[in-house]
Task: inverse folding
């Protein structure tokens, strides 16, 4: 058990980030976000939205009196914090942080019931008959999944036995409670997540009952008659069932048709992508290759018809949902941060089964744009919603934009995103490389050192990527017989590769070039051409006639600070230039300048307009909103 459990921990421990953009984001989480989150969870930061999360555990454990406070998924904020801390302790050991986390694990253990059940909203209510009575809307299984993931990660990082005991005790309770048996609950979670956790625990323990329960949850979802209708009727409810007035849309929780028949993405974006990732992980764990076709169909539907250029997913605030193909409005974009975190992790799962760089390209896009933009550089302020266009004066009182903020916020009543970003960025080291018995894939380019092949393969990467495309790799190995694959991102049209100062030309295969399998010492130079590249989206109604620019993996945007108000008046030409590096308190970047014109009109509707020449300055999207509240736009008018 221990060797399997420590596998992911070792991949974290054996890769160290060196100074660069990715490390700066991880440092912000470790140095600032994690201690800040703990204060928030304990309601010790005045002037922010109350959390109540840790207080709920103290009440559930019988340590203090009180009533449950918060949303039905409030427990998961604590669990995601604990998971992020687990990765952080591997990346950078910290005795004080470890002791704080142990005290949280001990509190969770005190709140856990004797049979393994734990969910503070219902534990506090002391009504055992209410357990699992509303799987559609309650978050018992969702929170259970995050608890199992957190405790498994903490055990891998610290070998603290109590954390793994909590996880297995809860999982065993679920195996007994759910399934196709006569005395079992035949339902499934309204919010997927437990599926991912059970697969993870199966890999740690080898207990096939966890994998079988995952298979049950996946296959049972959406079966007729719909379980969520059955449980609503059992509670004495009348139609329409569910939290909204009018007809309940069961695509919201992906139960509108049997899940095995779902090949188009629909519903709540985070729920959907967690579910699709669970399917992908199940394919890998069960070796059921036939199921991968469904995962691939869902992947293609998301990234080819329903994903923003920034790697955001979910265009509607209503139900935080994925909608129709190409329905990707800019200003009313929802693009919840958690959806991009989920997309990045799903992309990694897809790659683990099907070694193709397209997945890593999407992972990089989601992280470097939406995820990075969502958290301030000091790690203490956040965007929940990530629009591609903003007019601050048009937010207030607008129903479609009621969750949109013109500035990053210190916390939210629904605070799922900050802790989700933390757990992604603290574990990112383990995704730089992928290794199996025959191959080593170099998937992400950032300055780092790593030890692979059971300590026999040492790699040192120096680069300022994505500021520029120059990547220098030094390899020292002890007669390692593994093929090394270098990713050539899809955005890169031209590159130069040198091995020991000799330029070589190798064929791309699935987005990679293979450097052979016989390694001792080598120096590799890879130069990816980084130039401003125009992108068009004529199939998206909101983007027709407009252009967006990317430089490598970075999406660029215009801000009012640089270009004045009324960004919609700007029409760009083809003359574009990538500037030199600029450094500010909020980050280092290379601006893009584009020539264009500004159209002037003096009233709402005009028969005639005038125009003037202008130069438009663009900055990376992840750096928007650092110079005060103002207009922002990714897509700008294009002169034909």
Result:
């Amino acid at each position: 058990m221990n060797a399997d459990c420590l596998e992911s921990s070792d991949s974290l421990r054996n890769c160290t980030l060196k100074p660069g953009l990715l490390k700066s984001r991880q440092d912000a989480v470790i140095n600032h976000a994690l201690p800040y989150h703990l204060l928030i969870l304990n309601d010790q930061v005045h002037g922010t939205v109350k959390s109540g999360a840790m207080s709920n555990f103290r009440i559930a454990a019988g340590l203090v009196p009180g009533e449950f406070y918060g949303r039905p998924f409030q427990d998961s904020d604590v669990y995601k914090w604990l998971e992020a801390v687990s990765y952080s302790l591997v990346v950078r050991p910290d005795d004080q942080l470890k002791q704080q986390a142990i005290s949280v694990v001990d509190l969770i253990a005190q709140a856990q019931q004797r049979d393994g059940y734990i969910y503070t909203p219902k534990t506090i209510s002391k009504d055992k008959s209410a357990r699992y009575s509303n799987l559609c809307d309650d978050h018992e299984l969702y929170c259970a999944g995050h608890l199992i993931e957190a405790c498994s990660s903490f055990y891998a990082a610290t070998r603290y036995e109590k954390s793994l005991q909590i996880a297995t005790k809860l999982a065993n309770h679920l195996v007994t409670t759910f399934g196709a048996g006569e005395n079992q609950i035949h339902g499934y979670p309204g919010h997927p997540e437990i599926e991912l956790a059970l697969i993870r625990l199966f890999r740690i323990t080898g207990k096939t009952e966890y994998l079988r329960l995952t298979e049950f949850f996946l296959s049972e979802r959406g079966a007729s008659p719909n379980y969520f209708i059955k449980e609503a009727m059992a509670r004495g409810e009348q139609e329409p069932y569910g939290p909204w007035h009018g007809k309940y849309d069961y695509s919201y929780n992906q139960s509108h048709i049997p899940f095995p028949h779902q090949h188009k993405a629909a519903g709540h974006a985070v729920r959907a992508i967690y579910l699709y990732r669970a399917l992908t992980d199940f394919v890998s764990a069960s070796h059921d290759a036939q199921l991968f076709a469904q995962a691939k169909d869902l992947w293609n539907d998301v990234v080819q018809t329903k994903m923003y250029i920034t790697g955001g997913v979910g265009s509607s605030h209503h139900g935080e949902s994925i909608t129709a193909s190409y329905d990707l409005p800019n200003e009313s974009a929802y693009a919840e941060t958690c959806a991009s975190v989920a997309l990045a992790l799903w992309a990694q799962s897809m790659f683990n089964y099907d070694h193709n760089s397209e997945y890593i390209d999407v992972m990089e896009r989601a992280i470097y744009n939406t995820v990075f933009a969502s958290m301030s550089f000091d790690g203490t302020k956040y965007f929940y919603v990530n629009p591609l266009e903003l007019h601050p004066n048009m937010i207030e009182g607008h129903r479609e934009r009621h969750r949109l903020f013109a500035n990053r916020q210190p916390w939210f009543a629904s605070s799922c995103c900050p802790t989700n970003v933390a757990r992604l960025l603290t574990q990112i080291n383990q995704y730089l490389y992928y290794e199996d018995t025959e191959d080593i894939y170099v998937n992400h380019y950032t300055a780092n050192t790593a030890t692979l092949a059971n300590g026999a393969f040492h790699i040192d990467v120096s680069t300022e990527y994505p500021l520029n495309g120059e990547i220098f790799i030094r390899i020292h190995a002890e007669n390692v017989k593994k093929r090394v694959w270098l990713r050539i991102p899809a955005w890169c049209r031209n590159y130069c590769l040198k091995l020991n100062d000799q330029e070589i030309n190798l064929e791309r295969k699935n987005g990679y070039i293979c450097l052979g399998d016989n390694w001792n010492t080598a120096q590799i130079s890879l130069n990816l051409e980084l130039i401003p590249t125009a992108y068009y989206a004529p199939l998206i109604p909101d983007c027709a006639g407009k252009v967006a620019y990317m430089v490598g993996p970075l999406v660029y945007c215009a801000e009012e600070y640089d270009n004045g108000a009324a960004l919609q008046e700007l029409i760009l030409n083809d003359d574009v230039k990538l500037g030199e590096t600029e450094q500010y308190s909020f980050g280092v970047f290379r601006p893009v300048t584009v020539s264009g014109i500004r159209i002037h009109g003096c009233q709402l509707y005009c028969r005639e307009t005038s125009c003037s020449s202008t130069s438009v300055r663009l900055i990376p999207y992840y750096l928007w909103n650092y110079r005060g509240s103002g207009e922002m736009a990714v897509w700008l008018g294009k002169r034909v």
Q: What stands out?
A: The two ends are 63 Å apart (CA to CA). The first strand starts at residue 15 and ends at 17. The chain has 18 helices and 24 strands. The CA atoms of residues 93 and 157 lie 10 Å apart.
